[in-house]
Amino acid sequence: MFLYVLGLVAVWFIYRWLKETQRVPNKEDKYVYVTGCDSGFGNLLARHLDKLGFRVVAACYTEKGEDELKKMTSDRLTTIHLDVTDSESVKKAAAVIETLVGQKGLWAVVNNAGVAFPSAPHDWLKIDDYKSMLAVNLLGVIDVTLSVLPLIKKAKGRVVNVASVFGRISPFGGAYCVSKYGVEAFNDSLRLNMAPFGVKVCCIEPGFFKTNVTNKTLVKNNVNELWDRLPQEMKDDYGEEYLKIFYESMDQRFKQLIDADLMKVVSCMEHAISAVHPRTRYSPGWDAKTIWLPLSYMPTWITDGFFLKYSPKPKVSTLK
Ligand SMILES: NC(=O)c1ccc[n+]([C@@H]2O[C@H](COP(=O)([O-])OP(=O)(O)OC[C@H]3O[C@@H](n4cnc5c(N)ncnc54)[C@H](OP(=O)(O)O)[C@@H]3O)[C@@H](O)[C@H]2O)c1
């Protein structure tokens, strides 16, 4: 009986492996639009897809980003300027893409552009801190997608949305988790809406990787700036010790969790774009698979207990 079950599991794994290794043909005719290509995952993905032979439209936030990417890639790759928070910029980019792709349509869009600051406990923040991040991480994703959706439907192509493990579990304040939960919701309903048109929608939920989003200096500068603008009464409630413990625990967590191998994420993005049978979700990173996703399935009393135990407490905390 045991051998029979083992055999069935082995057959299932082989079947899945064979299914997942199949790739779409004619890469050289397929256009892929990637946002946020100045740095991090987007930059590496643009270079990787270019090497594989895809026609990449790499959207950069800065001119410097465009210039540097051009130097490293073939003339198949086109760079465009894009600010995902500016609808005019999104429309202009879509118009350029429409001209490039012609009757074939657009094979894939990868909604990768994102920001991680300002992030802090909710009571440190103002509504504009939320608006600025939601404008990039959530409304930007929706605007870019809608701007090219007719072209993707024409190609029966793909939408690849970069969310995060923090679209599945929400252990810290600020708009980041809110925005990524929003991306997950947009992703899931879009997947259903687009299925009848032969368009596949995939979500990437990375754990911690070494990019600007997890840059300790940038995180510390962001927290210091937000701390400095707090009223004295609030600073007294939290106490100076709070910041010290926050930085110590951040140093420790980042050391334990951050993975420098960005290819783990880029390989998932590439699979979502080029596999005949892409997955609906990808969770790159050992921490995503072994910590964050399992925690996301647990009862709230367990996850709350876990996060409260390991997070710094304000000086006036009533918790033991
Ligand atoms: N690193 C991680 O651990 C991690 C984990 C889970 C999810 N993610 C997600 O992965 C995605 C890529 O982030 P990353 O880690 O590769 O960090 P990153 O290097 O900071 O990449 C983000 C990119 O988005 C660009 N960008 C920022 N604001 C923009 C705007 N308004 N319009 C267009 N582009 C804009 C940035 O340009 P500039 O560089 O010029 O500012 C940068 O190229 C993000 O959605 C992030 O939330 C990251």
What is the topology?
Layout: H1 2-21, E1 31-34, H2 40-52, E2 55-60, H3 63-72, E3 78-81, H4 87-101, E4 108-111, H5 127-155, E5 158-162, H6 175-194, E6 200-204, H7 216-228, H8 232-238, H9 240-257, H10 263-274, E7 281-282, H11 286-296, H12 300-310
Parallel strand pairs: 1-2, 1-4, 2-3, 4-5, 5-6, 6-7
Helix pairs in contact: 2-10, 4-5, 5-6
This protein binds NADP nicotinamide-adenine-dinucleotide phosphate.
NADP nicotinamide-adenine-dinucleotide phosphate (NAP) is lined by residues 35-36, 38-42, 61-62, 65, 82-85, 112-115, 136, 162, 164, 206, 208-209, 211-214.
Keywords: Oxidoreductase, Signal
GO molecular function, one term: oxidoreductase activity
GO biological process, one term: steroid metabolic process
